[in-house]
Design brief:
With 130 residues, the chain is mostly helical. The protein has one domain (14-122). Helices cover 68% and strands 3% of the residues. The chain is built from four helices and two strands, in the order ααββαα. It has helices at residues 14-35, 40-56, 72-93, 96-122, and strands spanning 57-58, 68-69. The two termini are 24 Å apart. The chain crosses the membrane at residues 38-59, 66-85, 91-112. Keywords: Membrane, Transmembrane, Transmembrane helix.
Length: 130
């Protein structure tokens, strides 16, 4: 039986979950690091936004507890946002070796997320959490 998301309805492999988590952590660390020389406030805001958006907005069936239900494409966009920030901010803030590793993880995340994304695109968008 394939592994599913905490909401129990969307397929989500352990590898995909781990890579997605590493990409999120990379974005949370690299974004403020890259922005801090320009504005400490912007650096702090970047972390708040990157953590708050996926916490507040989620697709029912993908997460066990949904605060604001959104259709699957919104959840996919949030994952892509984290991937883009992780890759771009790592190149702005870190040495090339670290940035290359961060970019590789973000790209690997894309490959492992495809089954989940297909399911999220098919997920009903009008459902509300029970």
């Amino acid at each position: 039986m394939p592994r599913t998301s905490p909401g129990g309805e969307i397929p989500d492999s352990r590898v995909a979950s781990v890579l997605r988590f590493l990409t999120e952590i990379t974005a949370w660390v690299a974004a403020p690091w890259a922005l801090a020389p320009y504005s400490p406030w912007l650096a702090a805001l970047s972390v708040v936004v990157l953590i708050a958006l996926p916490t507040i907005f989620a697709t029912p069936g993908d997460k066990a507890h949904v605060i604001v239900p959104v259709p699957g494409p919104v959840t996919i966009a949030l994952v892509i946002l984290h991937q883009a920030v992780a890759a771009a901010a790592s190149w702005a803030a870190w040495p090339p070796v670290a940035a290359t590793a961060a970019t590789a993880v973000a790209l690997a995340t894309t490959c492992t997320e495809l089954p989940r994304w297909r399911a999220l695109l098919k997920a009903p968008s009008a459902r509300t959490p029970s």
